[in-house]
Amino acid sequence: VIKTTDIQRTATGFIKPSELIDVYEVSPLTLTDRRIFNELIANAWESISEDKEHTISKAALKGSMKGNERIEDTIRKLMGAIVETKITINGEPATERVQLLGYNKSGNQNDGLLYYRFPAELRRLIANSNIWAKIERDVMFAFTSKYALALYEIVQKRRNLRIQREKFSIDEIRRLLGVPPKKLKLFGDLNKYALKKAVDEVNALSDMDILMVPLKRGRKV
Q1: Cys staple from 198: which of 24, 85, 148, 170, with CB 3.0 to 4.6 Å?
Q2: Contact of 184 with 195, CB cutoff 8 Å
């Protein structure tokens, strides 16, 4: 059960469509990967639904990283990354799989530019979205865990929808946070190394108060 309480809104940020928040990563992303993808979305936002090439400086993506090697690695990962989101087809539950980043090019110089495009399917998904989450940039860069950033986005979406409480299965929360299938298999490990740390970081760094409570049926959570 996740319970959220609004305290106050502080720093400005950007909005992110819900279809890119409640997703299952077929290819798990790192904290750096998630941050850079968010920056690519924010940079292109005014014309993100158009079939066009966007431009951003590598310095804007670098943050506290030294050199551009990790940026290049992330761009390659995003090109090969696929996320799954739940949709309906003719009123029936279905799954849509979307590639995160399309064609791109960049120079090798440290202060160079990255030219990139989003795939048509991702642009359509974003254009048709009517639910958003506000992501505060300073909060995003303060997180040290990818699970904290994922949880922050999950709850920011529900905050906009005025959802204060929601129930998730263990499998659902693992996939939404991007926990690799072969890691933290036991709930005790998942709770200690992912859930509790994510909740603590979100509560410490954002303007929200989150409570996550395990629900037990017998010995099973």
Answers
A1: 148
A2: no
DSSP state at residue 121: H
The pair of three-digit structure tokens given for residue 143, joined into one six-digit string: 């997180």
CB 123 within 8 Å of CB 48 = yes
pLDDT tens-digit readout, 181-221:
889 999 999 999 999 999 999 999 999 999 999 999 998 89
DSSP label at residue 217: B
Strand pairing report for 24-25 and 82-89: antiparallel
- H helices of 46-169, in order, are 58-62, 69-80, 120-127, 137-142, 146-160
Q: Under DSSP, is residue 72 helix (H, G, I), strand (E, B) or coil?
A: helix
Within 13 A of 82's CA, how many CA atoms are on the CB side? 6
